[in-house]
Amino acid sequence: MTDRLATLLREEADRLLVPAPAAEAVLARGRGIRRRRHLGTGAAALAVVAALGVGFALTTGGGQGRAVDPAGPATGHGAVFTLGTTVYYDGGAHHVSIDDKAIKSTYYTSVGLLVRHGNNNASDGGGPQRFSLVTPDGDVQHVSVVTEETVPGVDPRQPYLAYTEVTDGTVEVVVHDVATDAEVARVEMPGHFRWGGWSGPPVALSGDIVYVGTNDVTRTVNWRTGEIGTTDNVPRGYPDVDGGRTVAQDDQEHEVIDVATGKVLLTIPPQKYGFVKLSPDGRFATIDAGDGTSFDVYGVDDGTKVTLDGGSFDYGWSPDGDLFTVRGHHVVTCSPATAECTTGSETIPSEGGGVAPDDLRYGNQTFES
Amino acid sequence: MPHRPGRPPSDADYTEFVHASWASLYRTAYLLLGDHALAEDLVQTALAHTYASWRRVRALEAAPAYARTALVNTAASWFRKKSWRNERLSGVLPEPGYERDPSDRPALVTALRQLPPRQRAVVVLRFYEDLSVAQTATALGCSEGTVKSQTSDALAKLRSLLGDAVVPHTLGAQHD
User: What is the mean pLDDT of residues A132-154?
Assistant: First the structure.
């Protein structure tokens, strides 16, 4: 009775293009899980963080009984932020130090927190941009990529860093696996790039697609197949894609758009000054009130709205989808669905090392202008 | 040197196992999730957990079954998360992962994408992995009644999309 359905399922499965086995990555992740299980109580710390069916995982060992899923859509919690050259995670309960002069920004990935750092904390005009990965073990691993004046892209569900390089006028999209520290794709693409003052066009990564902000159009690169195209679903200029969604906005209205289909998921009334930003998983959108005293948080899928005090950029998004801020010396975490906030018990110091020791930066926030 | 049961496999042995099991696991993962990146992540996660749980796996011969169970369990845990449901039901339809041909076969993948994650999983586990109602319930962490109702709902939806020729009216929860 089910023969026809079963046969069709098997035929579909047989016709899939199966990617090459990632044995090295499997072994690395397996060892990471095993190490954590072997660590005793009190050794290091634990924080699994993930966004959205989206996963950023940051873990240290220790703790008993807390389920650990090192990557991918996983449970997780806790604010992630940097102070000077110190990375705080698990709501500030644990921290690691980055061996450089300053941290520029951080990115949630499926294999940990990717940290961009360098000689100063400037994203634009700040010289070399070096990268380190804070792994689920709490280890800090060197990533061999060094960029300058580039705007990288990550997808929190994946272990990849995407960016562009321009050689003799030719733009190349590069995708680097930060877990294995190996370049996995380099795709040459058409089009020129002159705007913005960066060395190459800015990018966003969502699934297999790298969105590239070239001069006249947003181009798409499927880095697995090399297929290149263009899209009208992502506004021209600086591509900003979160959880497969982007924002188109003008003076009249703000729209949250599904980048794959172009479908308008939510329309938000404009405010005098505010502009719409998405959470890393794309589930929520924020817009600041005209007087700057509060901001609204919309649920993109259901249109719900709550209001929080302060400015939206004074808050970060934890990998598992909560808003948080550091107020005084404590982390305050707020639900984007109910606006209920709780103050953590951890005491956050005033400085965290490096040339900008009091520079507080929230996870996954970028600072390119 | 032959592998000794209970002792963790060498990197070479486990690499060989990963290569041998990867394609089959990936196919199941893709049918379950409908997304290349997530499918690859799911397979990696399942194989990493298998490697890390060697005391329970004990032997390479037992690893395929353990990895497949880990894969389904992990997928089920993803489905239970609200954020996953929100994301997957947002209307995003991932690409199928192969060159489309003009036959009617891609219609099945398109139809699967229109099922909620749990219904899709039930269809894949029961009709692709050939699990019983009880096995499917265990794998997804739900009751047998839920599996039956999900199966019924999923088949009704597939029938409306694909026609009686693919999903006859006689099909239903009695498949065990």
Answer: 89
Instruction: Provide the β-strand partners of residue A327.
Output: A330
Q: What are phi and psi of A21, to 5 degrees?
A: -60, 135
Alpha carbon A118 to its chain's center: 19
Cβ <8 Å between A29 and B166: no
Give the span between the Cα atoms of A160 and B46, in whole angstroms.
Answer: 19
Which residue matches tokens 């294999």? A111
- Closest-CA residue in chain A for B18? A23
- How far apart (Å, rounded) are the C-alpha atoms in residues A59 and A70? 8
Say yes or no: B30 contacts chain A, CB-CB below 8 A. yes
Which tokens hold the place of A36? 């954590």
* Terminal alpha carbon distance of chain B: 43
Looking at per-residue pLDDT, the higher value among A162 and A252 belongs to: A162
Structure tokens at A103: 């941290």
Strands A360-362 and A341-343: unpaired
Spatial contact of A80 and A363, defined as CB atoms under 8 Å apart:
yes
What is d(CA B1, CA B167) in angstroms, rounded to the nearest whole number? 50
Residue with tokens 């060395």: A199
Q: Which residues of chain A make contact with B127, given a CB cutoff of 8 A?
A: 2, 5-6, 9
Complex ipTM > 0.95: no
Phi, psi torsion values for A134, nearest 5 degrees: -90, 110
For residue A161, give the H/E element and its range: strand A160-167
Q: Which of A100, A170, A195, A98 is nearest to A141 (CA)?
A: A98
Q: Cα(B172)–Cα(B149) distance, rounded to whole angstroms?
A: 9
Residues 6+ apart with CB under 8 A from B125: B72, B131, B135, B136, B139, B140
pLDDT band, residue A250 (cuts 50/70/90): low
With a threshold of 0.90, does the pTM exceed it?
no
Q: How confident is the model at residue A259 (pLDDT cuts 50, 70, 90)?
A: very high
Q: Is B17 exposed, middle or buried (0-12, 13-18, 19+ CB in 10 A)?
A: buried
The per-residue pLDDT for B140 is 72
- The minimal CB distance from A30 to the residues B38, B52, B87 is found for B52
Show which of residues 109-148 on chain B sit within 8 Å of chain A, judged by CB atoms. Answer: 109, 123-124, 126-128, 130
CA distance B127 to B130: 5
DSSP A101-148: SEEEEEEEETTEEEEEEESSS-SSS--EEEEEEE-TTS-EEEEEEEEE
Nearest-10 crossing angle of helices B36-52, A23-38: 50
Tokens matching residue A94: 């644990």
**Percentage of chain A modeled with pLDDT above 90:** 52
